[in-house]
Design goal:
By secondary structure, the protein is α/β, with parallel strands linked by helices. The chain folds into two domains: 13-264, Ribonuclease Z/Hydroxyacylglutathione hydrolase-like (Metallo-beta-lactamase, Chain A, 4-Layer Sandwich), CATH 3.60.15.10; 287-559, Metallo-beta-lactamase, Chain A (4-Layer Sandwich). 16% of the residues lie in helices and 24% in strands.
């Protein structure tokens, strides 16, 4: 199974997420293994889709309206009693943050007619509305206010600007039986998505000329565990109008299987409107995380980002952070990254020549990972596991002193190791980074998903710490996602997924080119690195998730020498 290959000069779409309110969901209403009473505060996302060759703007879903109390009374009571909401920023305000008005939107496609997706349609007075044809069955007869108990307002959709789409003659694409090539150029497909509500549709859009895709799943699932098959659709909860969250459970489950199949394809991002992480179990194990000094590197800011601050110093001094992760029940000590080694003269000659002697780079390893551990009376022999995110010199430290530790590495880094120094004299990494008989190489390609990430290994098997496949920067690059409390807090250690926080926030982009090399980039595969960064941004939208990169300057300046560093710990959100 595959998706259509790109044509010559293939049109594609830029897709931007739009804030459109938050909604409290009881986990056990939606997944069969949800903890009774546990609430997940989930976003109700909308998406702005811009065609690469047409000056047309397309919005998928409108989220929750800010004045939700102006819904029909039946909906207002439902919100008050079952689905509390918080709408600090609605879709209109989200568009305005990017300089757009509702009048700029040519098409509004509603995934379905539930109130947390229809928003306030009235400001979109120039837009053509698109919705699955079966939704007409929901709008027959009297509506509010003619019917005081009606769940749909009479002015919900403009009759002269609404197209009800008939999927009966749509064509298959990938695993999906029915799709509409909306623009006729293979850039955006509207997908028939039966099961949840009559007329429910999804979006499949190309995001690049060379094979990137995104799938927007609407309410095909209300919890990411349903997409990964870690949970099943819950039935029988009193909060539903029907027996479950879907009017046709069997059809919804079949469609979820299609989504799982497309999500596993290379370069396909899948966005459900309510992305979550696994819920905590009873007596959930977790980890405490402490920052460790791992040396510093001073380099030009414009080496990392496309828009360095004009009045900023020409160079910035970045930490090379390491992290001590301690399990709450088994007591294991897990070290993520080793930073810069203090005896820098023992790096391969290529590192000393190209980096340490570069006129614009200054490296300081006066305090390394080992001396940072010693501040908490911890020795290398006390460390059970060492996981190095990747084999760049500023993360590998001096691995030889951890003589009792088991090392954890991604199988994908092995080809690089075989081409290290001294086998290859000009290599910037050594062949002996990992001890031969104490290293576990993990093949993450078959690992299941977690949150927005396609592949992650539940390291301890108890949901406390996940090793996340993190492609793009260097073959074998991994990140760590770990719980920091028993009730739903997390931290994501992103290593070199990005080298500047502005790249994570979207305020800047990955820099390509230097005065001495116009094609130089810190990532071996920039496109895959950007896709992974997009996933990290999705993670940031989930409540109680902290994200940290290895070279996070602002956080380091604020916390240096404080309680977040060992023997203290990073505060759990």
């Amino acid at each position: 199974m595959s998706l259509p290959p790109p044509a010559e000069n293939q049109a594609f779409c830029d897709v931007s997420a739009l804030e459109a309110g938050l909604i409290d969901l009881l986990d056990d209403m939606f997944i069969n293994n949800g903890v009774p009473g546990h609430v997940t505060t989930a976003p109700s996302l909308s998406f702005l889709i811009r065609h690469s060759q047409r000056d047309e703007k397309f919005v998928f879903d409108l989220g929750i309206r800010k004045d939700w109390e102006n819904h029909p009374p039946a909906i207002v009571e439902w919100v008050k009693n079952t689905y509390p909401v918080n709408v600090k920023q609605d879709v209109v305000e989200s568009l305005q943050k990017g300089g757009l008005q509702p009048s700029d939107i040519k098409y509004v496609c509603l995934s379905h007619l539930h109130w947390d997706h229809t928003g306030d349609t009235r400001p979109f007075s120039n837009s053509t509305f698109l919705i699955g044809g079966a939704a007409q069955s929901l709008l027959q007869g009297s509506k509010y206010p003619d019917d005081p108990n009606g769940r749909f307002a009479s002015d919900l959709l403009p009759p002269d600007r609404t197209n009800f789409l008939d999927p009966s003659d749509w064509k298959p694409i990938g695993p999906f039986p029915r799709s509409l090539d909306f623009y006729g150029d293979g850039s955006l497909y509207i997908i028939d998505a039966p099961g949840h509500l009559p007329g429910h549709v999804n979006i499949l859009a190309r995001t690049s000329q060379d094979g990137g895709w995104i799938f927007l799943g609407g309410d095909s699932a209300h919890h990411w565990n349903l997409i990964t098959f870690e949970s099943q659709v819950a039935v029988g909860h009193s909060g539903h109008l029907h027996t479950c969250a879907h009017v046709d459970k069997e059809a919804a489950e079949e469609h979820i299987r299609y989504i799982n199949a497309v999500w596993k394809l290379p370069r396909v991002q899948s966005k459900e409107t309510k992305m979550t992480l696994p819920i905590p179990a009873t007596n959930q194990a977790y980890c405490t995380v402490s920052a460790l000094e791992g040396g510093q590197m001073t380099a030009p800011e414009d080496l990392f980002i496309t828009n360095p601050v004009p009045d900023f110093s020409k160079s910035i001094t970045l930490p090379s952070l390491c992290f001590l992760i301690q399990h709450s029940t088994n007591g294991h000590k897990f070290l993520f990254d080793l930073g810069i080694r203090r005896d820098m003269e023992n790096y391969p000659p290529a590192v000393q020549k190209t980096i340490f002697k570069a006129p614009s780079v200054l490296v300081d390893a006066s305090q390394d990972c080992i001396s940072s551990l010693a501040k908490g009376d911890t020795k290398p022999d006390d460390i059970d596991y060492v996981c190095i995110s990747h084999i760049h010199w500023d993360h590998t430290g001096d691995s030889s002193v951890f003589t009792k530790s088991t090392f954890i590495a991604n199988e994908a880094c092995r080809p690089l190791l075989s081409q290290g120094y001294p086998t290859v004299p000009d290599a910037t990494h050594s062949t002996d980074i990992y001890p031969t008989h104490r290293t576990r190489y993990l093949d993450l390609t078959d690992s299941p998903a977690i949150g927005p990430f396609p592949h992650a290994l539940d390291f301890y098997g108890d949901g406390s710490l996940y090793i996340v496949d993190s492609p793009g920067h260097l073959p074998g690059h991994v990140n760590v996602l770990t719980r920091t409390s028993s009730d739903g807090a997390w931290i994501y250690l992103a290593a070199d997924s990005a080298h500047h926080w502005k790249i994570i926030t979207g305020e800047s982009s990955i820099k390509v080119g230097t005065p001495w090399n116009p094609t130089f980039c810190l990532h071996v595969d920039k496109k895959r690195a950007e896709e992974h960064i997009d996933r990290i941004r999705e993670l940031l939208k989930i409540p109680r998730v902290r994200v940290m990169i290895a070279h996070e300057l602002a956080w380091y300046v604020e916390n240096k020498g404080g309680s977040a560093f060992w023997p203290g710990k990073i505060f759990s959100l």
